[in-house]
Amino acid sequence: MKKSDDDLRPEYKRVVLGKGVRGKYAARYSKGTNLVLLEDEMAEVFPTSEAVNEALSGLVRRARKKTVTS
User: Fold this and answer.
1) What digits encode the pLDDT tens for the residues 24-63?
2) Domain segments of the chain: what residues?
3) What is the Cα–Cα distance from 49 to 30, expressed in whole angstroms?
4) How far is CA 14 from CA 5, 23, 54, in A?
5) How much is the pLDDT for 2?
6) What is the pLDDT of residue 7?
């Protein structure tokens, strides 16, 4: 099986896809990312990453406070 120079599927047209930008997301990728999959029930309560981080930060503060006072 010989691989052709143009390995796009016939339904995709290079003109429609536009010009690609090399390294467009390289800086973002190099920072690193942690992805967590939430259960549907949790995603309803915490719809954004900010909401999740705020809730977890509060929990950590409370846990640390309890540990210090114990």
Assistant:
1) 888 888 787 777 889 999 999 999 999 999 999 999 999 9
2) 36-70
3) 20
4) 13, 19, 44
5) 56
6) 77
* Closest C-alpha among 2, 56, 1, 11 to residue 34: 56
The pTM score is: 0.49
Residue type, 58: G
> Which amino acid, one-letter code, is at 47?
P
Where is 15: in which H helix or E strand? helix 14-17
Please give the angle made by the CA atoms of 21, 24 and 27, to the nearest 5 degrees: 155
Amino acid residing at 8: L
Buried residues in 32-60 as b, exposed as e (16+ CB within 10 A): eeeeeeeeeeeeeebeeeeebeeeeeeee
